Amino acid sequence: MTAYFTPDTFSFLSELAANNHREWFLANKPRYEADVKEPALRFITDFSMPLEEISPHFRADPRANGGSLFRIYRDTRFSRDKSPYKTHTGIQFRHEAGKDAHAPGFYLHIQPGHCFVGCGSWRPGGPALRKIRESIDEDPEAWKRASRDADFRGTFELSGDSLVRAPQGYSVDHPLIEDLRRKDFIALVQLGEDDLMSDDFLDRFTALCRTAAPFQRWLCQATGVSY
Question: Of 104, 123, 124, 172, which has fewest CB within 10 angstroms of its CB?
Answer without folding.
Answer: 172
